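Q: Structure for this?
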Amino acid sequence: MALFQRFEAAIDAGIGRRRLGYALLALIIVYLLWFPNDTSQSNYAKTVFISGFFYAIMASSWALLAGIAGQFSFGHMAFMGIGAYVAGLVARDGLAFLTAESISSVGAIVIGTVVAGLVGLVIGMLLLRLRAAYLALFTIAFSELFRIVMLTEYDYTGGSNGLSLRPLLQIADVETARQVEYYLMFALLIVCLLAMYWVANSQVGLFLRAMREDEDAASALGVNVVRYKILVFVFTSMIVGLAGAIFYSDIGSERIIPEQLEVLQMSLIIAYAVIGGMESLIGAAAGAFISRYLLEATREVVITYPFGLTTADGSNAFVWEPGAWRYALFGFVMVLTLRFMRNGLLYPFITWFSGRDLVMKETVAKRESDEDHAARQGADDE
Amino acid sequence: MTDAFTTWLLLAGPLWAVFGLWALPRFAGSRKVKDETGLARLQVAGVVGGFALGPVGLGIFYLQPRWITRASLTVGLLLAVFISSQVLVRIEDPNLPSALWLILAGPLWSVIAAYFIPRRYREAEADDQNALTAAALGGFAIGPLIFGLLWQHTPKISRDWIIVLGSLGAWQIYTLFALHNADNLCVAAPYHITYLAQQTANGVVIGCIYSLMAVGLTLIYSVQGIVSFAHGQLYMVGGYFSFYFLLHGSNLLSELTGTEISINPLWGIPVAGIIVFLMGALFERAFLKPMHEGLIERVSEYAILITFGFGFVIEYTTLAIAGPFPQRTDRFIEIRRFTFPRTQITDQFTFGPINIIGDRAFAMVIGILLIFALLYFLQRSWTGRALRATSQDRQAAAVTGINPTNMNTLSFGLGSMLAAMSGAALIPIFAWVPWVGAEMVGRSYVIVVLGGLGSVPGALVGGIIVGIVEALGAGCHPDPSRGAAYKEAFALVIFALVLLLKPTGLFGREQT
């Protein structure tokens, strides 16, 4: 512990925590930018990273909606699905007076995003009357209804086979295609994170936090609760709609299937966000990315026996396929995180690097000394 | 002629009515009427005149406001009814207009009524508690006529109103199904009555089991004020506990005695109940107790997430242990039907034209018995009374010597136990996979919200309603394969409507 404190002091005296944090962040970004050029990595690893970026967008936008604005929506996956399905249907069947040929794949994605935003507007307006558990129940119902309709109207949506979107990029070479997709998804993540950061750290973000803590008090202090509730709902719906439309038209082989809209999938998003930290966008994004990576990496665990031991058939390692146990453990971690580290497992790192814990310590020390002071004064008065 | 007339009625009639509602008080009212009742009368006149005669009606009322009397409005209303009825008579293809009416005009009128009628109730300072529900249902069921019923006298809307209007709306949907496909089993005489009776019976039977699960949810809510999002998984795991108990128990007994013995699935129900009771109680102690002790910020969010996480863990653990393969236990009973010349063994009870699968009937009986046992426990025993006292007023209960912490644990354990017992009662009937809970829990949310969160009789009634709606909806949908796929969706639509219109449900306590 003493060593750590010495290290802490050295950092504070030298580069400063905040700058060290930025340096680390830059390092991570550079690594992620370089990653697809790493020839030792398989295409599969790149695919895992791409889906990691996608889930990072989902989790961080849910963190904005639930963690910062306090709107416990379980319909996040449904909005993603609306974006993807609308983009796919529009690109295939056209829209009103536009024929399918006249709509480019970018146009389809834009339409999908806008429709997701519009549905978000309507649902957001309906949700105004509901709070906490009722809101969660209503969004579950909405998302289930959407899933059932997508599953049943197979003439249009392809039912459980899913719907394939028009590819955004047409690159024949698989390697290059993966690389371009990788950069596209990474860029989307960065753009979405920046946009959400801007919202969360602006005055709107303050209003949202105030509403989360006490809606009536915020309203009494002049925050237009109705407007900001709807705004945050529309904003996050559009972000996930966009992410869904791009993700599913990006990786040509993947189709949007109704299974993706199940409550179970939604619960994964929630678990990522909770583990990473619900009240921090970057925490939720990192949580999603890391959890996703770990869940993929532990598909097959190879345990090498120590000391050169071998089994009877001559193998020196034991292959364990944890299957659903990974998720069970993952859920357990989520429950423990909720109970004991409400702000997520990454919160200590974030506070350390931002120097926020220094401020906290100072505040606590100041308050204590103030209390001591007051107590002494009280004693003097007596 | 026909087409133009239809279009007029379907689109222009309601449109003119809306226009009249907005315009007549504004323009005619500025010259003549100032007081409240006069304003209301002008609005009614706008709706009736606009619907019946379109711009002509509005023009007459605008130029001659003194013609707006009760008599003229009644005449206008009758005219509107007459015109509406003419639609069905005149048109060769009867499917189109009714379907359009329901699809376009029904919801349209519903929204219009839901917007205006509660306002009117508030203006008249009448009790507007059920006004929104009645207006939305009535607008859907009887269109503009709902204004005639509710506008002038703003009668107090009891539960009977809602039930009558809701039934009318359901009847309209039935008509829509009928018109859509005349060969529909629900409609085609002479078997439709039998078929409907059969479907309703199925609905009631399965609804009782749904209720049992929902009662658990409502019990937890009434004591702790939280909705358990792990309920579906507890239901699922209850079924699995029963399954494994029967499997291993039978094997063990067979080995010990040397003869083939299979334990009746009935025994699985209490076993699953006890195990899950302990699970629920332990979870409550570990994760929910700190919440009630004020150790945790933003309680409602925490409660949602922690129960959700609990369900997540259970679901994946079960998947890891039991695998994704469908499981099922033996039947509860075999029924002997005495027919000449030999006794037949079937799995069905037969009451006239209605067949009920024996196990379902048995499960229903178990469900009802357990609900009554719970009610008896809640009403008569000291602990049950203590539970109810805690749900009514925690502080007052604590003052009289009830330990609210223990009551919390007890309520969560009991609620979980009921979910597990309904799971154990249904595993002989349904193929059991680790994700059955997700489907079922949606239903129990529908039931508790429909019946009113925190109300045990509400859960019973809600369960039966949901059972019937699902059975009839799935059975009567014009396209049978879609009907089966939309089975859950029917209940979810009701759910969304109840949440929006009347979050307290049919029997719920008023929100404070």
